[in-house]
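Instructor's aside before we start: the two examples that follow are unrelated to each other. I chose them only because their records fit on one page, so don't look for a connection. First example below.
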Amino acid sequence: MPDQQTDLAFCQDQLRKFDPLHHFMALASLEIHRPALMVLHCFLDEIERIPLQVSEPTMGEIRLQWWLDVIARENTDLEGRDGLENIGPVASCLKLIQRNYNLSPDHLIQIIEARKFDLYNDPMPDWDTFETYAGETEALPLLLAAQILNDGIVPEISDLCGNAAMAICLTKQLTNFARNANRQKLYLPFGEFSEAQVNEAQIWVLESEEDIISVLKPIANKSHDHHVQAQQEFNSLKEKGQAHLGSAFLELALVSARLKQWKKKPLAPKNIPLWKQYWSIWRYGR
């Protein structure tokens, strides 16, 4: 029967394979918290990949529901594993850190529920919906990572999480715009395109490029503004005695690089070499 160390090693290997950036970021944290951070991001990566692995939304709904059931399950005998080996190493380790770090099941459930949007081709309707999506897919993971780094105590960093999430989420959607359009997915508010007389069919084939870019430019500026605010709040962590939370926000290091690359060729697929991303994260975390 696998033990906890074997399961933790599995999560670490999975994260290194499928999400090397967050694996690298976890290595910047205190050694005592690294396994929990790797488990958290292994779980996050696994549910994020579900929409790309299923042939129809119903199958994705079933897999996400399985995770919802895992989160809702109460375990009273984690030391004895209570049958946890039967739910797989990632889920077993997630339940372990959920208890050890007092992670809110409501937060984990919100993150899972948000991924249902990824299963369907409905465009993101407006800014309110986008901000909710960014909050659930980016801000909550940042908060949970910071909670792990804070020994299980929820830190008061809502503004930092909110601005960082918007900056990160917006730049991801800008740099992945062409790839998502090819999948007939629009994560940026469709209302912005509708006002510019750009319809869904034009987006899917990247027709009327000038009109599309004219919509995307203010969105890039919005991402930059959130990044500036998040950077100011990040820099103040030391002044507030919260420097130990810094490694939870290392992805902010990539926002400027992503925006710079996007501006060069807005509608071209983007791929910053991994070593350059490592370098940016390393310098940012010093």
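Example two begins here.
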Amino acid sequence: MIVVFSGAGLSAESGIPTFRGAGGLWEGYKIEEVATPLGWMQNQKLVLDFYAQRFVQMQECQPNAAHFAIAELANHFDVVCITQNIDTLLEKAGVKDVWHIHGRIDYQKCEWHFGIPPMYAEWQCDYQAQINKPVQWGDLCPKCGKKLRPDVVWFGEAVDMQVDNLYKIQSQVNIFIVVGTSAQVYPAANLLKFFQDVPEKYFIDPHPNTEVLAGFTVMTGTATKHLPALVEAIKLKLI
């Protein structure tokens, strides 16, 4: 089994900006205003307008050579893709098994879908659904009547690491590829430790921190520069 763990650098060459820009801004917005529970409480319309722009942008973007390389890998081997990206470019490229640990831009959920203060747990609503247009101001949950929000993980919210599934596959993984992410931010950084005993490990990033990459074959550069060639090398070796 092969696990590919990806971050924003995988989709950057498709025109999707990496998450954090200069000065703590994300496409001109302060991150705390549009990507935190507090920002949602203070100005829901601003948050929804921001994600509506992201929705349209991501719908227009197309997979790049690195996405298609992962799809090619999945055509020949048992591949699990774990991604921090909320876009669906891997799916567009043809990858079927993708774990979006930060959610997906093309899903909506009730604002009370878990992650709420424990004292209100009895009011949790599990509504979640795929969408073909952005969540709009005033959209209400069809199940409980509360407000709808994008199904993405904000700062301060729990990441969906699918821990049970990780343990199920841990002993089966023989190749681990990390691409387009620093892998230094927790809890995602735990994946490097979780798969530390995998015999064959690769790390692709323009600015790798080699101090934390013991046991990895490090490839300095972009996803499209290295991933297609790596996939071809793996195919030649294993097929």
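The mean pLDDT is 90.
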